[in-house]
Amino acid sequence: MAEDSPTASCSKAKSALLAAGVAHHANGLTKSAGSATFTNSKPGAAKKLVIKNFKEKPKLPENYTHETWQKLKEAVEAIQNSTSIKYNLEELYQAVENLCSHKISPKLYKQLRAVCEDHIKAQIDQFREYPFHVLFLKKIDKCWQDHCRQMIMIRSIFLFLDRTYVLQNSMLPSIWDMGLELFRFYIISDLKVQSKTIDGILLLIERERSGEAIDRSLLRSLLSMLSDLQIYQDSFEQRFLEETNRLYAAEGQRLMQEREVIYSLEIVDDMNFIFYQFINLFIYLLLNLCFRKPLIATVEKQLLGEHLTATLQKGLNHLLDENRIQDLSLLYQLFSRVRGGVQVLLQHWIEYIKAFGSTIVINPEKDKTMVQELLDFKDKVDSIIDVCFMKNEKFVNAMKEAFETFINKRPNKPAELIAKYVDSKLRAGNKEATDEELEKMLDKIMIIFRFIYGKDVFEAFYKKDLAKRLLVGKSASVDAEKSMLSKLKHECGAAFTSKLEGMFKDMELSKDIMLIIQVNGNNSHGNLDIIGSMVRLQEIFKTFYLGKHSGRKLQWQSTLGHCVLKAEFKEGKKELQVSLFQTLVLLMFNEGEEFSLEEIKLATGIEDSELRRTLQSLACGKARVLTKIPKSKDVEDGDKFSCNDDFKHKLFRIKINQIQMKETVEEQASTTERVFQDRQYQIDAAIVRIMKMRKTLSHNLLVSEVYNQLKFPVKPADLKKRIESLIDRDYMERDKENPNQYNYVA
């Protein structure tokens, strides 16, 4: 039935027509004779055929059009009735071409359409009264299959018409499309027929969902029919979505009422899997990928989307309390599929963190374990975000906001307890953890530290505890102390840590040697490498000390310190008062003239950022005892350093980047009271600063601006007292006409 067969036959027919010098063709056409002649007819010579155009255009005999159409009509009706065709298909194809060549195409197209229309009209009655049953679907499918087969054969006969006249008239449907149009109009668009067809298809789908075996080829054929007839969306898709919506709405309601949340989620996941299998089948049946998305969305909406809040209220806290990672992962995956699901989960996530965190902070009975519980809780929520919530940035930010909210519900106390927790860990040092573990713990502490508002409270208690550690020599790790100060400086700025850094004090052990190194045979500076020169100096001082103090035991201080090194430049000898890190670096130049950054790092073992700062102080500061190549303010990879023989300074003893260390032993009766006093000064300063700039402000505006500037919480009553105090001290005054307004007093 392929369209190419008639075309091939047509070519053969035309060749035969041209080659034969007959007066009349089998189909009745008349043309001039003698249109072909032979030349060069000598004996033994090849004959040459010369073909000339007709002198006159062939004419159709009388009644040719009528008789030819009758043949074509009989052939069409034979195809429609599944009987044998009396005429040769090549002859029929040629007849169509002849009619089209003589401009009878419009009439021929109308006649063909009328015959097809009459046949299709006659089919409708058998379906209108046919009872609804699966047999009805088979009958309508057979009618459709027969129609398609018939139109293919009919088109093969009328192919010349389809490819010339129809193709040149864009308003006319092709012969195939004409057949679809007629079938759609007279058969499937009939209300009774369409209703029974769609109901039958939905019945097959419902049976498939229920696990029954159905005729999938029948279902595929019917769905393809709807698609080919372009009524799939209007007649079937909406009905199918409604049925799917109804089915899964009932199932979703049942799950919420009968099951615990996790079992409901597992069933939803299983049902989704089963449904996806069905969707894949549906796509196989119809090859309609566009319909997959609304179908899946309908199922997920009814199984889960309508029950988001109920699901979370029923079991989220339980899953989080028990840290059920696998179940939480399933929860997130399912909620991610539903529109708005992640946002609902996010809100409940925030509320859970606030509620659980508040139980840790608010209860005074938990003060002893508060910080450790906060650290454990933070580790837990971090793990859930990473593993279960796919590191979703919204959940990370929400967690931070929730921590900041609950941890400040109890002002000052968390800050105090965090400072004491750090003190206990730094005192214990390597007894409880390795240097690496201690460093990780300090990092975690700093994360909690960021959430608290009362950082000045932390500073006060940390300062007091630090003083005690240094005074009694109980700091177990010098590097840990420095690391903690570095972290605080990074978080709060240099102003915050300047007082703490000043508490480290040099301890003079000798005029020429000031080495604060812990000895009992080991180096206490973490991964620092006390190079040969330092060890020799240590032994020299040990000999010197024992010679001066016979019978005494040498006690080395386990705290930070400085060294005084003698150095000789072109200008003369100088004494350099430097830190331990600076000492390690400078002593290397007794062993060589030039070293790269990488060589110094390898030899000393100083941490990279600390080493860069150390080298920067020696080569880029005011007292440049080292020369750096290339010259720049910063230390970069590959930089090389050498001793600056041309170094000059008016002083004999030079302090390079010396950290001011003052040992304070004053007793503080109440650290909290001191914090309160410090806050009063900050409040006063903020008020005066605002009034000096604004000159005149109402009470509410002043209070609002003060709150914006302060980094710690203040009660309205305390703020009012500070305003009154400044009025009494003539920094500001109340307006005489409006007592709710303040004026700045210059």
UniProtKB/TrEMBL annotation:
Ranges for domain Cullin family profile: 413-619
The UniProt record lists the keyword Transmembrane helix: no
The organism's superkingdom is given as Eukaryota
Family matches, as InterPro entries? Cullin, Cullin-like_AB, Cullin_CS, Cullin_homology, Cullin_homology_sf, Cullin_N, Cullin_neddylation_domain, Cullin_repeat-like_dom_sf
The UniProt entry's coiled-coil ranges are: none
Membrane spanning stretches: none
- One Gene Ontology CC term in the entry: Cul4A-RING E3 ubiquitin ligase complex
Q: Which SUPFAM superfamilies match?
A: Cullin homology domain (SSF75632), Cullin repeat-like (SSF74788), Winged helix' DNA-binding domain (SSF46785)
Instruction: Kindly indicate whether the keyword Phosphoprotein belongs to this entry.
Output: yes
Its pathway, per UniProt, is:
Protein modification; protein ubiquitination
Q: Name one GO biological process term.
A: rhythmic process
Question: Could you tell me one molecular function GO term of this UniProt entry?
Answer: ubiquitin protein ligase binding
Query: Which keywords does UniProt give here?
Result: Biological rhythms, DNA damage, DNA repair, Host-virus interaction, Isopeptide bond, Phosphoprotein, Ubl conjugation, Ubl conjugation pathway
- Give one Pfam family, short name only: Cullin_AB
Q: Which family does it belong to?
A: Belongs to the cullin family.
Q: What is this protein called?
A: Cullin-4A
The protein's organism comes out as Astyanax mexicanus (Blind cave fish)
